[in-house]
Amino acid sequence: QGKIDAEGMAYVAPKGQGGLLNAIYVKTGQRVSKGQRILKLDDAMARQGVIAAQQQTGQLKARLTQAETVYERYQNLWKQNIGAEIQVINAKADVDALAAQLRAAQAQVAMAQEQANMSNVYAEISGMVDAVDVRVGEFFSPQGAAMPGHGIRIVNNSNLKIVANVPENYVAKIKKGDSVQVVVKELDTTFSPVINMIGGSIDPITRSFMAEAKLPSLAALKPNQIAIMKILDYKAKAAVTVKVNLVQSDEKSKYVYVMEKSGDKMVARKKIVTVGQAYNDFIEIKTGLKDGELIITEGFQNVYDGQTIRTNK
């Protein structure tokens, strides 16, 4: 048993620390494009930070302009051998210090602006809004965004797959590229993809490994839908098979009863058999039966070797 999964499934989450939710621009069932704005967080504090940083930048620009003027005047006077060289050096140091402060302040403006922009939360993928479990006025954070019932989920069904956990005893029998059958009972549909990915480790709890196969993009297929993945791990051509319940066992062997003609009557004969693999209520008979033998399928549990039997035909 496996489940259908969508490679294009994402939870909308803020890039920063999150904040109070001011507005939601989408609703369940709406199709959205990558980069489309989904919601708006409160940005009052962030905008104040931008204004404060811009004011500091303006003040530093004015001081730098003044310092450059002073430096230029001292430099011109020194060229005329007026004043002291130390005045030129100090004026140049003031210009360099203020220029460095201005660059830092401009970087601070950019950071404050980026922080303010984080109040806008955008879709990372294109698809359909599958769930909107947040409300205006609630606190929306990256930690809570992916929690069930606490976020906005976008699903893109253009790239579907089935994911199944396979018991570890099949690890040597299954490989990438093997054909499988995927049965979706609710749709009464069977697909025939190939395994495109085999897990690289065994889960220590379930003692299984993961196998994936691509599925077509159909509107009827939904992520988390249950499906059955049938993997061919054994193949035998021209195999003789019988119903599993027809094979009986005693302390020595396994056997079935067949009907043979003995003189003018029909008798039951016990045939010792060697069995192979079982599948879908049938079991493989490797030895013990010949072509043309008639297996007793009704009342076989109440007969014995050599017993005379009658049929309705």
Report on the architecture of this protein.
With 313 residues, the chain is of the alpha+beta class. Helices cover 23% and strands 37% of the residues. It is built from three helices and 20 strands. The strands form three sheets. Strands 1, 3, 6, 8, 9, 10, 11, 12 and 13 form a nine-stranded antiparallel beta sheet that branches. Strands 14, 15, 16, 17, 18, 19 and 20 form a seven-stranded antiparallel beta sheet that branches. The protein is rod-shaped.
Gist of the model:
It contains 3 helices and 20 strands. It has 313 residues and is of the alpha+beta class.
Described by the principal axes of the CA atoms, the overall outline is: rod-shaped
Biggest β-sheet description: 9 strands, antiparallel
Please provide the count of β strands: 20
Radius of gyration: 39 Å
Mean pLDDT: 88
- First-residue to last-residue Cα separation: 44 Å
| Number of H/I helices | 3
Q: What level of helicity do the residues show?
A: 10-25%
Strand proportion: 35-45%
| Model regions low in confidence, pLDDT < 50 over at least 5 residues | none
**Structural class category:** alpha+beta
Order of helices and strands: EEEEHHEEEHEEEEEEEEEEEEE
